[in-house]
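can u pls check wat happens w/ copper (II) ion
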Amino acid sequence: MKTTRRQFLELAAAAGVSTMVPWRAYAEAQSPALRKFIQMLPGLGPAGIPVASPTSYLGADYYQLVAAEYTQQLHPQLPHPTRLWGYADATTGRHRHLGPVIVAQRGTPVRLSVANHLPPVHPLPVDTSLPGAGLPPNRIAVHLHGGHVPWVSDGGPFSWFGADGTYGPSAVSAPDMGAPAPGTFNYYYPNDQSARLMWYHDHAIGITRLNAYAGLASAYVLRDLAEATLIASGAIPSNEVPLVIQDKIFKSSADQWGQAGDLWYPGKYDPQDAQPGGLPLPFPSCVPEFFGDTMLVNGLVFPTAHVEQRKYRLRILNACNARFCTLRLFYAQGTEFPGSTEPNTRQPGPPFVQIGTEGGFLPDPVLLDGRKDATLLLAPAERADLIVDFSEVPAGSILILYNDAPAPFPMGDPETDYYAGAKNNPTPSEPGFGPNTRTLMQIVVGQRIGAKDPHAPLRLPPLDPAPLVPPGVTALPPGIPVRDLTLNEDFDQFGRLIQRLGTTTPLYEGTFARNYEDAPTETPSAGAIEAWRIFNLSGDTHPIHFHLVNVQIVSRQAFDVRRLRFLGLPTPPDANELGWKETVRMNPGECTTVIMKFDLPSAPFIVPPSPRTGGHEYVWHCHILEHEEHDMMRPLIII
Ligand SMILES: [Cu+2]
């Protein structure tokens, strides 16, 4: 596997656009062996992940949140409750991992006041060699991921605010909510989009990967009439279960950042992965990617869910820092505990019918039965809205939600792949116990209680808004302006791997890459339609996330990285990518073409220009958080 990746990169290196050393896993820490599936999957509500409750203010649903440190037992066998950073509804002050969820209605704006009560010491190793060195380590910025919001409320990297009353250079609190008290910030979300699952998470400069990993992330569900009609007719099940997937590592013993049971995050850059001749490696240092050894669903380690023999709607978010997931259901090897804790990969469970992505409903449902070309692949930040029919599953059956995506994607390293009997991992786990990155959760199917599901044909509403190109057509309409952009990988001054976005005009010798803080180059006019052809010159698939806009994927096309020339014909996106997207997988050696319209949202106040950049300041970036932060992000300035 590694050889293939190296070969690709040698090819890229020969082209003079990228060089790198083979990637190696950071297997310094191992979570304790935690027994799988002995705690219940948290649902939404008082017994699980809290749902925030609004008051009314200035014509909006008004939420007051605090960001603070707290502890929570994430698995009964962890020696201590885990120290987390997270949001809580200020009216209750109740912190639960991944709470509180916000449920919004289309057409009813949301206003958010967030108070930063985080302590000045970060629970994870902070690399001060990244942009943001010297800033308060408890700086935060709340980004509504997927939201069509005015730039002042986008919570971008430079819009951070500290607990001590300091603010980033682009921090402009919602102008009609009064001056924020020191350590607080106000956001305005119009909710002018169709129904979809979004999420809000931290985005502060230089520390996003650590803040999100420490727990500053939650779901934001937007509802609308079209969705309500589908549910009322029975076309979409009313049994709705959100599944937020994360991979983490728990400390087995204390270190300078915490005690056993706390979250572990690497602080050391492996010198074997550094290009010789660089400056001495800093400590703590960022790492190329973080891969955990233990899976969490809805904030708890290896949970169990109980379902009845009927249809369910599963709404999945990959909230991992860097890990991709290919998700399938398998029957467990037996129904007798503990033999039921490992999957029988020759006995597939019920298929998924995918009905939506980040941008709402797909044009048509897509059957994903787990076979080749019909698997659910989710990169970090991608979402899938699924219907799973358990009605034909024998009562008493146990199913395992299974992932075997290579990490990093697509070439993989066996040392990041944890499962019982793993042959190429030096630390294989025991059946029934973690570390394990393949078995996410267990689903126990019980008899249906009560009436049968209503029977209604599954017809999805037309794309909302209307598509810019007919879904599946790989040709751009004539006259659309095209930008050519690049995804690059080389080394920083310490010899560390660095991923960066760029244009096709070199700014630095030997690379097309540009730093986040270099002058903006993507500066579309408000209302403009553009196509972006994004050439991936690196060895990884990057989930590229666009703030402000949803995009349609027009095509993917292989190109010769030596000569930067297309090979073969463009291919349309996968069937489950035919709707609106805001996080798009861009594969190595491929040019991914997306099309979007840079409409600015309306606001009940005059939106001032960014004091830092002079326009409507957004970003586009890779959502592998370690890439985003070093330094795979560029300004997106609407003028
Ligand atoms: Cu990336």
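DSSP finds four helices and 34 strands in the chain.
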